[in-house]
Every structure is written in C-alpha cells, then in structure tokens.
Amino acid sequence: EIIGLAAGIHDIGKTEKKISKAIAGTRKLSPRKRIRMENHVPEGLKIINNIWNSHQTPGQKMVSKVVGSHHEHYNGTGYPNRIRGSKIPIGGRILAIADFYCALTEDRSYRKGMPKKKVIKIMQKESGVRLDPKLVKEFIKFIE
User: Fold this and answer.
1) Cβ neighbours of residue 83 under 8 Å, at least 6 residues apart?
2) How far is 6 from 51, CA to CA, in rounded Å?
C-alpha cells in the first residue's frame, strides 16, 4: 500500500511552475534545467508535507521516504541525497525500478517507447549502478 501510494504521487513536485516550465517538451536538459528538474523531489516532499502537515502518521512518513528516495541510485550517484545501496529505503529502490521501466517503455513527446526486451537489457546493464541488482532480477522475472 505504501509503495502504491508513493508511486501515485512520486512526481508531484513536477507540478511546481518553474520545474514544469523547465522540463516541458524538452529532450535534453541544460545543466540549469537539470538542476531544476532534480528539485522535483524536494518540491514534491514539500507539497506532501504541507498536505499532511507536521503530524504525519507512520504510514505517511514511509510514503514520504519512498517519494524522497525514488531517484537515488544504487551506486550513490543519484539525487537528492546521494545515498547508496541498502541505505536507500526498499520502497524507493522498488519505485526506482518501476519508474525506470515506465520511462523507457512509454511513449514520450520526444520519442517512442522502447520494446520490453530492449528495456530489460538496459535494466540489466544498470543493475548495480542505478538499480538494486537483486530487485532487478525479481522485477524481470515478474514481467516475463
């Protein structure tokens, strides 16, 4: 339930005006626009925390942790906090895989979605780099 709720709201920070303007219809982001786009994670947390106020339930806190970590990379090169490996909440690692898969398989304004087999190869290449290797194996088993 926590991961499902987080998946539904994980990119809510992209609705912030400066961020949505920076990423609208853009294929390759300039360094300045990339910084703005990466701010969608803390902006999203601000939105979530404003809605839930400062008295979050334990479940809401877990949702916030998942949303806040869905762009962390397994090797520590992600954002916003550059945490790595098992220090990334399990929900964030799971959501990162689902988000990655959707980003590559779905049509975008600037490109067609890729076939599942091609995306699986890319995911295997990113296993241990961006994505948790154990979870990638499980995800691939699930979708095949």
Assistant:
1) 69, 72, 76
2) 14
Per-residue model confidence as pLDDT tens digits over 75-96: 999 999 999 999 999 999 999 9
pTM of this structure: 0.91
Please report how the helices 31-38 and 40-52 are oriented relative to each other, as an axis angle in degrees rounded to 10: 20
Residue with the bigger pLDDT between 56 and 13: it is 13
At residue 26, the pLDDT reads: 65
d(CA 22, CA 30): 9
From the CB of residue 111, how many other CB atoms can be counted at a distance below 10 Å?
Answer: 10
Is the per-residue pLDDT at 101 higher than 70?
yes
Helices and strands of the chain, counted as H and E runs: 8, 0
Separation between Cα atoms, residue 53 and residue 30, nearest integer Å: 34
Other CB atoms within 10 Å distance of the CB of residue 35: 12
User: Encoding tokens for residue 11?
Assistant: 């990119």
- In whole angstroms, what is the distance from residue 136 CA to residue 47 CA? 30
